[in-house]
Known about the structure:
Largest sheet: none
Number of helices: 9
Structural class: mainly alpha
Radius of gyration: 19 Å
Order of helices and strands: HHHHHHHHH
Number of domains: 1
Amino acid sequence: MPAELNIQSKLENHLKYSPLPHEVRLWGETMVYSIILFIVVSGYYFVTSGSFTEKVLNRAVGDVALLMIGLSLILSSVCYFWDFADKYIIYRKHLGLVGVGYLLFHIIFSFTFSSYTPFPGYYFEDKRIASFIAALIATLIFFGMAIISNRHAIHEIGPARWRKLMRLGYLAFPLVLFHFGTKGMPYWIPWLTGKSDALFPSFGLIVFLFGSVVILLRIALWFSTMKKTGIKV
């Protein structure tokens, strides 16, 4: 796909003038960024709600997971349209994998909180089943992407097929947003319609809007590459 070739070209050009940092440094910096992000998200929830329960903790972990994965996915689109972010493309894999790590913690927390029991009956109720299935499919895709995010997998699968498999993330992400939005919308609508006394929106709404931007930019990238290749859309 032209987008991936464009990103790869930008990455190679960037590395000519800026040597790739040591892998340990990339992982370390990404983890530090995620911890800072978690502190900011947790602080926002604490200030706006006045408390920080286990349920709020789980929500903050889920928010960070979505933000980290979203940042990983949006880098391709941002780097395709603008040059200022080219130097950050080297963090794409690390952002995604750390995000999947937070997603794993979110799943564990969700299955152990008393408010989400009995398992799995709680998730199979009519009002939750669609959200649960969407989250399950997205999780399987993200975990699969995490497993093949290494050079050995690229060699065994082949670069072209590997890139196609990795693009499944753009299918999984809307499914996560659906799960996220289904659970959060009852809390967001009162604030959006002015029926809430809260001065600030739920951080979940901010994350959802960011996720929507990730998807919209990917659609814009798709249209742009289709036009350049002469394919009618």
